[in-house]
Each structure stands twice: as structure tokens, then as C-alpha cells.
Write a sequence for this structure.
């Protein structure tokens, strides 16, 4: 089927089998290989992208379901000369080792900070009404869908906390 | 100086923007074929009929290859030629590839692979240690036994004895990037292979061998891996060979990527084992004699199991002086995945054994396990005479003579053997036994321990972690807490650095300076996230006195640096850093001689710093000197080479000096368990680790934290389960529990020891990849401590200490009367 996807601000037409996942559409049909395939089962988080600002596992999302939504991938969050605050802090804090989970971590963290700002509580929140201090426990809970086998978790948490501070400062 | 700076990973800007390219991201021509294996559904038997007609007829399928399509079927083994790419009729484990499909898409290949009609004659499968022992199914003729002193007598005459046995589980690598390779056919039958591998030369060798090509016809390039952890030392061979075979036969590029479940079903994991121990000790807990039996489940093929099991024996002492010890190591052959290299390479398994003895002895005496551990430590290192960590006086060394090959002339190598594999253990020249330093205590393999810093290092960690006060507080807390119990443990690490196959301890590098002053760096090491490329670039930048970012880091390439050893055994920066340093020094010396000549001064008066070259009061840009040197017809390209000195090892006898030095560390972990459910959590971890003069503290701390979490994961949550038919039932992260962000300890303090290596390593640093993995052992013994607070019995925990096992242990100690 012919579908049209709004990816990182540009409209892309692509002809796909209707059962094609968003992840395969991005990687195999649209040349956007920044989004990684780790498990292809929605368990590792390496394929996390944003649909209208909310994080989804691209491997569990059919490409045709993303029609009409704004899809944001790691390539759309920033570029080498204009890094997003999270990208900059992942760089400053070495928030990775092998880097394979990194695009998913950054996409996930981008949406996670929005969820916090919108007042969504988590299992780790001490008060369901908020406010939600950006503690290690909150971040760990909210980021536990993104596995990092190198276990660079300390630096990932540091990067997210500092990016949130950068955001508050602005 | 760029050495010792916490510079970010060289590819950081690429990683955070999604531009870092892994093998599966490399654009291939639209004609590329995608490959998949069809897998066996039984663990042991014969294929009586393999009907592939439906596979061939499936949409998108271009070619299907069964065993009859090869003569012989290509071998994928790094050691014993016992791993056909696809079964030749005999099925040896559940998940064994039976045939190969090439299709025009990944999905088409995988779908088609499920359409085969396979008939089997099933045979009983040997799945467990007991099955294999009963059938005497093993690699090598019998167990390997190393002994020092008379352990049996020492135990028999000891005031006290403990004994026991426990199971120690395996571990799935779960590199986030699964196994993948791609091959492009070049003119004249040559091949270019892109592989996610720690061992490009082995891929080159195996591909060349499969296609009856000289190694020079095959080029292997590796820019990076999305994690390796040992799982990409030999387990990627099959994919690269399959791609090469299909590319050669069809003339089309071919790519193969295992889907995650296939990856976990097909590839080997960390060796699991049953470990038996018996130890005699005095009233202080000092061991008089100890005997270990290691029963390793090696799986269906030999792979690297022999050196892995050797390394477990080499770490059976950890930090403890054991004058009377006997280690018996069985390498059992089972109908399961072929266990392989995994961070630590058997060392962690050996080390958990002696730590179990310490824990058990302390429990038997009612003493703090840390006191027992300290009572058994090796003697402290003699202070180094001169400041700055010069080598202590030792046996005279002559590197050049060693490199040329003192001793007997080696036999002509068998061309089918990959000499660069750690599995190539047979038929290699062995050297005599290293002379012991007078007075130094020796390991169970008779290597003098001259650099033991455990006493000071542990003393500092005890202080910074507030161990004694916390231990007392935990005892009080437990007395008042009937349901939740806390536990704490401090365990040390001493890990030997060098490949135990001595000739692998060599490396090469290639460095170019271009006429514009830019620098191109290449070496034999591969990047898997450990930061090797950045560290080696810092070494090179230090020699040239330029900014590390001026060094162009390039993909590992068998056409640039040949005959490389695997990036393994934590050796990457030690070996490749030294080789790159040698190449850079050659170039710098040439440039210095040239510019000194122009100024009529001596070459050693030339200084390279801050991107400038200073000579005779003048200061020139590095680029200016490069351009002049080019015009003056000075060669601006050089190789560099390094061979680790002082190594002498006889593996059969278990005697010699297999390691240049030891890396040390220690960790304190505090945990809490729920005695009603067995659920448990790490509350705090304090790590102190020895990386010598760190080449890059930020990268080293990252390695240490990650290794600890991975090590603790191995011993707590990561459980591999096979069913009674030999099917791995934990073949995805849904059922195999990897540490997540929430499993990082809430309080996590990590520090570097910060003193120089006594040996003349690159920048006096120490290897960091594997040693801190074993800091995670402290989590296991902290759990044991918490369980011990529940009753009088000894916990006798098996690993991984899942909630089920913790609960069972709690009930055991409570039932103990």
C-alpha cells in the first residue's frame, strides 16, 4: 500500500506491505538507520521513536498506523552542529559505551521529560499529584524500558538530570 | 599531554545523532541478498530427510543450500574444526543450523526458512553435567589437573574442613546489536567482508579457508560493534562465512543478521558449571589446603572452551596465597549451544569458587568474611624503589630474542588452523618455566605475585565505604527486622592480564602523516564501546603533541594491519596502544631528525607540543613541518609493532608466567532481601579499582560501572533455562532478565586506585575491560550474608541468586538445626 509519513518535518511517500513495521519502514525503506533494531519484540527499547511527541517502540508499530502523526526519530532531534539538550548531555556525560541503544535512550528520555512536565506520575513517584523531583528512582523507573547492555546507566541518569536542568534554565 | 584526560568517546557526536554506522546500517546495492538459517528442532539425532522444496518455492527466495551443496561444508570453528556451518546430517543441539536460505529480503529469508520438512531419528541428548559425566562425554581425554603442594594431606591434617558444591549459571551476551555480517564480491573473486566481530583476522581466515582462497584475497573491515563482551570473538564466524559463500556463488552482495531469538538459540554463552570444593583451615580461617573440581558444560563444539576452563583454573586463587591446592577441570561435551568467550573468559567462574570457600570458612568460624579473606591474602608487594613506578628488578628480559623465537623450532603450522585464535592451543611452542623471584609467593601455577596491592586497596575501600560501621549497623537492623534482611560483602579481585596463548600477545599499527599535517591512525584492535579507539588516539596525540581530535581514527581493516589478535582478554589498549606508540615514535623521530638537521641541532632537542614543533628557538606548526618533510622526501608512513615481554607459559603442566601483570580491585555491596518472597535489591555499591595510570579516567570509570552491573546481573537476575528436550526457553529479553536502569545500585560510588602499573605498559596504565566484571561477585556474597542472617545454616546459594533461589536458601538456613 502507498502511505505517506511525516518524518522529522518532511513528508515521505513510500510503498509498503501493510504489515511493515514502522521500524522496518524507517530502516529499510527510508534510509533512516539511526533507529536501531535490538530485539524486534518491544522489549529492549533500541527502536524508540516519537509519535506526536509520545514514545513508542517502532518495532511494535505498523508504519501505516503512523500516518497522520508526526514521527520524530533521532535524526530529527538535532544534528551535529545543533544538538538537542539531551544529545549534548549524553555526549558530555558519556551516556553510552557501544552506542547502539543511544538513539532509543535519547528519544525515550525526550518524551519522558515531557511526561514529567505534563504531570504524569510513575510507579516510583512518592506523591501521585506531584511534583516529581527528577530523582534517580524516578528516572530509573521511567527509563527501564530502554536496556543498555554496557550498563552505562549512571551516566545516562546524569545526562538526563543535567539536560532537565538545562531545560529549566531556559 | 592527552594521556590521562577524560575525553569523550571519539564517536560521541555520531552516537547521539544516530549517525554512527553499524554493519546493518551500511547501504548495500539493491541486488543484495539476505540470508537466514533453518534450525533444528531437536537436540541430538540424525536428519533422515531434509525436504527443502517448499523453501525453494517460497516468495523472494533466490537460493537454498543444504549440506549436499558443499564439499565439504565450511567449518566455522576457531579451534577444532568441529563446527560445520550447517549440519552434515548429525544434529548436536537444538537450534543447530541445518540449511541456508538466500532471499531478496530479510523477512522473506526468515519466513522461507520455516517451511522445510525435516525428519529426524532422535537420540538421547546429554543436556546436564550429570548426563555428560555418566556418558564420559568430554573434550580432551580426561580432566586437566594442576597441583601445587599436597592439598589432600593438608586438608586431612587441618583443624577444620568445609566442603560443598554449587551450580554457577551461564550468561547470554545480549550485545544490543545482534550478530551480523555482510559480504561484497570484488573483482577476481576477492571479497570484502563487513562484520560485527572482535576478531577480524579470524573472519578473514575462516572465509578464505571456506572458499579456498589465500587470506590476501579477503579483506575484513570492522568500524564498530554494538557490544561484544566476548560473544563476537568466534560466534560471528558462521554469518560471515555464509555471506561469503553466497556472494561468491551468486556474485551478489549478501547480508546476514540473526533475529534476536535466533541469535540466542544459535550462539554460545558464558560457560556454566558445577563447582565442588573442599578446604582445610586453621582457627583464624587461614587455608591450609584446598581442592576444587570444575565441571564445565561446554556444549556441542570445542570453540574456546579449553582456554576458558584454563583461565578459571588460573583464577582459582584470586587474591589468596594457597600453598597446597589441587584443581581438577572437566570440559564436558553436551548437546547444547557451544559455550564461548564472555568477559572474564572463565576467570569469574574460578574466582567465585574461592570466594565461596572464604564465605563458607567465615560462616563456619563465625567470623567476618573480610577478616578471613585478609588472613589469606598474598604478601604485599615490595615497595618500588624509584618514584613513578619503574619496573622492579626482575629476571633479565630480552624482548627481541623472545620475539624471534628462542627455544625449539615450532612445527610447520597446519594451514587450516587459525593461529590467531585463542582456541589454537595444540601444537604451539611452549616455553620453559619462568624463574621465580626469590622470596615471592607464587600462584597455584607457580607465577610469583610481585605486585599485590590488595592489602592497601582493601584498607582504603574499608575506610571509604565505612564497611565496619555499616556491618555492625546491619547486624543491629537485622535483629529488629523479622521479614527484611540486609547483607554486606567485600570481595577483592586479582585478574591476570595477557592472552594465555603466548603468541597472541602481539599487535600492529599503521600511522600516516599527510602533507597537511593530518594524521591517520589504524591498529589491530576493534571498537565495541570500550573506548579503545579514543584511548589509542590519545596515545598517538601524546607522541605528536597534537590535539587528540586531530587524529583520524579509522576502521579496523585486515588490509592495513595483518595477523591481528582478537580484541579480547582486556588486552586492546595494552597491545594496540603500544603498537601505535611505536609507529608514532618512528614518524616523530623522522620528522625530528629532519627539522633538527635544518637547524643543525640534535634531534632530541626537538619538542612536539601543543600542535607545534619547537626547535632551536623557533616554533613551527606541525602541519608546516609535515609539508617540509614531504618535500624533503621523508617517509611519513610507518607501521608499529609490540610483543608483550616476560611471558613464559606451559599450559599442559600449569606452570609459568602467563601474565605480564595483575589488575586489582575490590567492591563492597549491600543488599536487602525479602525473606517471604526471595525478592532482593542492591542498595549500595562502593568500588575501588586499579587501572594503573588511567589513560582516560572517564572511560575507565564507565567500564568499571558497566562491568559491575553486568557481573552482578550474571550472579543475580540473568538466568538461562533449558527444558528437558534441550530447548533454551529464555531466548528473548522478555524471559531473560537483563539489568535495567532500575537495577543500578541507588548509591554507587566508584573510584580509581590511581597508582602506576609496575610493569612498563602503555602510559603505565592497566587493562580494564574484564577485571571489574568480577567486582559484581560482591553482590552475590552480600546476598549470602543476608540469607545467613535468617538462621544458623550456611546459605549455600546457587547462582544466579534469583528470588526463587534466595527463598530456597532462606528456608534451608531456617530449617537447619
Amino acid at each position: 500500500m502507498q502511505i505517506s509519513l511525516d518524518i522529522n518535518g518532511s513528508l515521505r511517500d513510500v510503498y509498503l506491505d501493510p504489515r511493515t513495521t514502522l521500524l522496518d519502514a524507517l530502516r529499510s525503506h527510508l534510509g533512516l538507520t539511526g533507529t536501531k533494531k535490538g530485539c524486534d519484540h518491544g522489549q529492549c527499547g533500541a527502536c524508540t521513536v516519537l509519535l506526536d511527541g509520545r514514545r513508542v517502540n517502532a518495532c511494535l508499530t505498523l508504519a501505516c498506523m503512523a500516518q497522520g502523526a508526526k514521527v520524530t526519530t533521532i535524526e530529527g532531534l538535532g544534528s551535529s552542529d545543533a544538538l538537542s539538550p539531551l544529545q549534548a548531555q549524553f555526549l558530555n556525560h558519556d551516556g553510552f559505551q557501544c552506542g547502539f541503544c543511544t538513539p532509543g535512550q535519547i528519544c525515550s528520555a525526550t518524551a519522558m521529560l515531557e511526561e514529567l512536565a505534563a504531570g504524569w506520575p510513575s510507579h516510583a513517584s512518592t506523591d501521585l499529584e506531584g511534583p516529581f523531583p527528577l530523582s534517580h528512582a524516578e528516572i530509573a523507573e521511567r527509563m527501564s524500558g530502554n536496556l543498555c547492555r554496557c550498563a552505562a546507566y549512571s551516566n545516562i541518569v546524569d545526562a538526563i538530570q543535567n539536560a532537565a536542568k538545562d531545560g529549566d534554565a531556559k | 599531554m592527552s594521556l590521562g584526560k577524560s575525553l569523550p568517546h571519539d564517536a560521541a557526536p555520531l552516537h547521539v545523532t544516530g549517525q554512527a554506522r553499524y554493519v546493518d546500517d551500511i547501504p548495500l546495492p539493491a541486488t543484495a541478498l539476505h540470508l537466514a538459517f533453518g534450525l533444528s528442532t531437536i537436540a541430538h539425532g540424525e536428519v533422515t530427510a531434509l525436504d527443502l522444496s517448499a523453501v525453494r518455492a517460497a516468495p523472494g527466495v533466490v537460493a537454498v543450500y543444504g549440506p549436499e551443496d558443499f564439499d565439504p561444508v565450511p567449518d566455522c570453528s576457531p579451534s577444532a574444526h568441529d563446527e560445520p556451518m550447517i549440519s552434515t546430517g548429525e544434529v548436536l543441539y537444538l537450534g543447530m543450523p541445518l540449511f541456508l536460505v538466500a532471499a531478496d529480503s530479510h523477512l522473506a529469508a526468515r519466513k522461507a526458512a520455516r517451511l522445510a520438512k525435516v525428519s529426524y531419528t532422535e537420540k538421547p541428548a546429554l543436556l546436564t553435567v550429570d548426563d555428560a559425566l555418566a556418558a564420559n562425554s568430554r573434550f580432551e581425554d580426561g580432566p586437566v589437573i594442576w597441583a601445587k603442594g599436597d592439598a589432600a594431606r593438608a586438608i586431612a591434617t587441618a583443624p577444620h574442613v568445609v566442603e560443598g558444591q554449587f551450580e554457577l549459571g551461564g550468561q547470554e551476551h545480549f550485545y544490543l546489536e545482534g550478530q551480523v555480517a555482510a559480504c561484497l564480491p570484488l573483482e577476481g573473486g576477492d571479497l570484502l567482508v563487513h562484520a560485527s566481530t572482535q576478531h577480524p583476522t579470524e573472519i578473514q581466515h575462516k572465509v578464505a579457508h571456506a572458499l579456498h582462497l589465500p587470506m590476501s584475497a579477503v579483506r575484513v573491515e570492522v568500524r564498530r560493534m554494538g557490544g561484544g563482551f566476548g560473544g563476537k570473538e568466534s560466534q560471528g564466524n558462521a554469518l560471515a562465512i555464509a555471506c561469503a559463500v553466497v556472494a561468491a556463488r551468486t556474485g551478489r552482495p549478501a547480508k546476514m543478521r540473526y533475529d534476536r531469538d535466533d541469535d540466542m538459540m544459535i550462539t554460545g554463552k558464558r560457560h556454566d558449571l558445577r563447582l565442588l570444593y573442599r578446604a582445610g583451615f586453621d582457627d583464624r580461617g587461614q587455608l591450609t589446603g584446598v581442592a576444587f573440581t570444575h565441571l564445565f558444560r561446554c556444549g556441542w563444539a570445542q570453540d574456546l572452551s579449553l582456554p576458558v576452563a584454563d583461565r578459571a583454573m588460573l583464577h582459582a586463587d584470586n587474591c589468596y596465597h594457597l600453598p597446597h591446592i589441587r584443581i581438577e577441570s572437566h570440559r564436558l561435551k553436551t548437546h547444547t549451544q557451544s559455550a564461548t568467550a564472555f568477559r572474564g573468559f572463565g576467570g569469574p567462574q574460578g574466582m567465585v569458587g574461592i570466594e565461596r570457600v572464604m564465605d563458607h570458612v567465615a560462616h563456619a568460624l563465625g567470623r567476618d568474611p573480610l577478616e578471613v579473606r585478609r588472613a589469606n591474602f598474598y604478601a604485599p608487594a615490595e615497595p618500588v624503589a624509584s618514584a613513578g613506578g619503574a619496573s622492579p628488578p626482575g629476571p633479565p628480559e630480552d624482548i627481541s630474542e623472545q620475539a624471534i623465537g628462542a627455544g625449539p623450532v615450532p612445527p610447520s603450522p597446519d594451514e587450516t588452523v587459525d593461529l590467531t585464535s585463542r582456541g589454537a592451543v595444540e601444537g604451539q611452542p611452549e616455553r620453559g618455566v619462568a624463574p621465580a623471584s626469590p622470596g615471592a609467593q607464587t600462584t597455584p601455577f607457580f607465577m610469583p605475585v610481585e605486585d599485590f596491592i590488595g592489602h592497601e586497596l582493601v584498607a582504603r575501600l574499608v575506610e571509604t565505604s565505612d564497611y565496619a560501621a555499616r556491618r555492625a549497623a546491619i547486624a543491629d537492623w537485622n535483629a529488629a527486622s523479622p521479614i527484611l534482611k540486609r547483607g554486606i560483602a567485600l570481595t577483592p579481585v586479582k585478574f591476570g592480564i595477557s592472552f594465555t596463548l603466548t603468541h597472541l600477545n602481539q599487535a600492529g599499527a599503521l600511522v600516516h602523516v599527510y602533507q597537511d599535517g593530518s594524521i591517520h591512525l589504524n591498529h589491530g584492535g576493534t571498537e565495541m564501546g570500550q573506548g579503545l579507539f579514543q584511548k589509542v588516539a590519545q596515545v598517538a596525540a601524546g607522541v605528536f603533541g597534537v590535539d587528540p581530535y586531530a587524529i583520524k581514527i579509522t576502521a579496523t581493516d585486515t588490509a592495513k594491519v595483518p595477523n591481528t589478535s582478537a580484541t579480547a582478554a582486556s588486552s586492546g589498549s595494552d597491545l594496540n596502544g603500544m603498537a601505535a606508540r611505536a609507529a608514532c615514535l618512528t614518524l616523530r623521530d623522522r620528522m625530528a631528525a629532519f627539522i633538527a638537521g635544518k637547524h643543525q641541532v640534535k634531534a632530541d632537542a626537538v619538542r612536539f607540543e601543543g600542535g607545534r614543533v619547537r626547535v632551536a628557538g623557533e616554533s613551527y606548526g606541525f602541519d608546516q613541518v609535515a609539508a617540509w618533510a614531504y618535500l624533503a622526501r621523508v617517509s611519513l608512513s610507518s607501521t608499529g609493532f609490540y610483543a608483550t615481554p616476560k611471558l613464559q607459559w606451559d599450559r599442559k603442566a600449569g606452570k609459568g608466567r602467563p601474565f605480564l601483570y595483575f589488575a586489582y580491585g575490590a567492591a563492597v555491596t549491600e543488599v536487602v532481601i525479602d525473606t517471604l518472597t526471595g525478592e532482593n535489591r542492591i542498595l549500595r555499591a562502593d568500588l575501588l579499582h586499579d587501572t594503573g595510570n588511567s589513560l582516560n579516567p572517564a572511560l575507565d570509570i564507565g567500564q568499571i560501572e558497566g562491568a559491575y552491573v553486568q557481573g552482578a546481573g550474571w550472579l543475580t537476575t540473568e538466568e538461562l533455562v533449558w527444558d528437558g528436550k534441550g530447548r533454551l526457553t529464555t531466548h528473548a529479553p522478555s524471559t531473560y532478565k537483563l539489568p535495567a536502569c532500575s537495577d543500578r545500585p541507588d548509591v554507587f560510588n566508584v573510584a580509581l586506585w590511581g597508582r602506576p602499573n609496575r610493569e612498563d605498559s602503555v602510559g603505565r596504565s592497566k587493562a580494564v575491560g574484564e577485571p571489574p566484571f568480577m567486582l559484581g561477585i560482591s553482590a552475590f556474597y552480600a546476598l549470602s550474608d543476608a540469607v545467613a542472617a535468617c538462621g544458623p545454616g550456611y546459605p549455600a546459594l546457587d547462582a544466579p541468586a534469583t528470588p526463587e533461589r534466595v527463598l530456597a536458601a532462606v528456608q534451608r538456613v531456617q530449617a537447619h538445626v
Observations:
- Chain B touches chain A through 63 residues (CB under 8 Å).
- Residues 7 and 91 of chain B are 50 Å apart (CA to CA).
